[in-house]
Amino acid sequence: MAVTRQTEAVDSTDISQDQFLWLEEVTGDGPLEWAREHNTRTVDAYAGSPRFEAIQAEIREVLDAETRIPYVTRRGEYLYNFWQDAANPRGLWRRTSLEQYRNDKPDWELLLDVDALAAAEGENWVWHGAAFLAPSYDKCLISLSVGGSDADVTREFDPVTKEFVEGGFALPEAKSSVGWIDADTLFVGTDFGPGSMTDSGYPRVVKRWRRGTPLDDAETVFEGEPTDVSVHAWRDPLSGLDFLTRSTDFYHRKRYLLVDGAPRELDVPDDAEISVHAGHLTVELRSEWGAYPAGSLLVIDFERFRAGEREFQSLFTPDDRSALVSYHWTEHALLLSSLIDVKPSLEVLRSTADGWTRTPSAPVPDWCTVRVLSTDRFHGDEYLLAVDGYLTPPELHRLVAGSDEPAEVLKHSPARFDPTGLSVNQYFATSADGTRVPYFVVGTGRPGPTLLNGYGGFEVPLLPGYDGGLGRAWLARGGTYAVANIRGGGEYGPRWHQAALKENRHRAYEDFAAVAADLVARGVTTAEQLGVSGGSNGGLLTGNMYTRYPELFGAVVIQVPLLDMRRYHQLLAGASWMAEYGDPDDPAQWEFIRTFSPYHLLAADRPYPQLLVTTSTRDDRVHPGHARKFVARIEELGYPVDYYENIEGGHGGASNNEQRAFMRALSFAFLWDKLS
């Protein structure tokens, strides 16, 4: 069923007249007082109920369960894991051997206790990962965030002594880009002072920093433009070649090879993705390139490419139903993940003297997703495969590319909710322009409260996956869950994404509205019992559902959202997304951007559904001012709205399991209250 909606005239008043601009002051006393007052009202309304307390406890139990799979990343002889639970809310970074990992209770070697570090240093540390020097893995850089923001503090850590390196490499808090050149040298992009960051807030300058020298003395290797998104550099450990990337916008980047200290641009499309491994150059196309269609994965010998040859071999060529999802190298093989109508498959490709061979990996269970979790492209052909689905608890499989060795189930998770009576079905809705839009429905098949989720941006596909918290809080209580694979995402590759860029953004919202209407037409639910949720770009999606299609929904949850599209490019990382949404400072582009700017679409006398808006003060990717101003404007118009702002947590909205359980329980309690 197709649904169309004419957008109303929007207010393009000069932003200087925005009476809620003061709420953009992230940590100002006034805005924080405003946020705390709203938090108190929302907590009083929902958090004291028996249903909220039960849901929160159930979600927390799932998040902290000792029987969760401790997912690992192989680096050399060790399997590394980061673990959070009730006793270790900030987490433990640890490692073990494959032999130990096969046991129900492996013997873990503790490397870093983040809770102990936070207590010792009096800082609210949140783990952001470790980057090893390959292929030896005897040195690493640890990234820690204050409160969950995107900005990191970087410190060198010795995985042998299990201590931070005294006098080692260290960077203060910034949105940095750091990579190993060798044991004593780094490529580093960070905040070197005025002019060193792009308008998007990422590094504009890359330098070569040698051990034992001040950061101020680091040698400049490359500089981008202020209008770029970012620049960064990396070394391929096998060839010793150094590469540079200058991202001119979110989807276009110039690639260079450093030759005798000078950058030489590589002759590949700006919107393609590339990788170099074991003498192979792969090029993943986002647009047509000569005889090669968009969405293809090409390969060529890198030295022949440097010599001018352009005869690629296509490892993947899409059709109208298929798309490349990802690819991963082992030492001697390439693992290629693809979709056919949002159903995953995985193939193992190997280069031989007669060309590339391909064999299917382990078969994929129905309505499940397989994800290559870990490879070590310098040490062997082992790969770890995560398998799960909406009703299929996670399993972790170990396989070896090119080997007859059967798949080994290393770990499996027990069910977190009873799937009895539940089923998964895929349907197709018809959008306003006639496009078939796939979506999944998980439930009992009986009409009732239904939660619809979507994203539709940045070529990100929404794939089947197990969510124990959702299962307990929603499905086990009789709710139905639906996922819309709308344009803007990556379910059908670049064409699906590019169909909803900029002036065509409305197609993503028409797709989502069509799925909502189709759910009602099929008898899955009614408009009064249909809820919708989404975060980040998905928050922009749900903001548009609230303002453009209010009659289709009974309740809307908007999380860490973009909502003021007139100013999004001036707030935090927003400038980096203009390739997705457009430039509001260009009058011609503002004319179409204004049609999907929820802050400007709010109007009196509309049948708005019930609304919960959540965000995080420490989100330094999507500015909390979006959510604050939207709520203030709704209140000015006299509509009811609930609001909660986590004072920390970053773009994920929460930084530990206690906060995650609270935030999710708040959303579910709200939805049950409004849709039951």
Automatic annotation (TrEMBL):
UniProt keywords, alphabetically: Hydrolase, Protease, Serine protease
Pfam families in alphabetical order: Peptidase_S9, Peptidase_S9_N
Domain Peptidase S9A N-terminal stretches: 16-399
The keyword Transport is annotated on this UniProt entry: no
Protein name according to UniProt: Prolyl oligopeptidase family serine peptidase
InterPro entries: AB_hydrolase_fold, Pept_S9A_N, Peptidase_S9_cat, Peptidase_S9A, Prolyl_oligopep/macrocyclase
Record has Isomerase as a keyword: no
Domain Peptidase S9 prolyl oligopeptidase catalytic: 474-673
Species annotation: Cryptosporangium japonicum
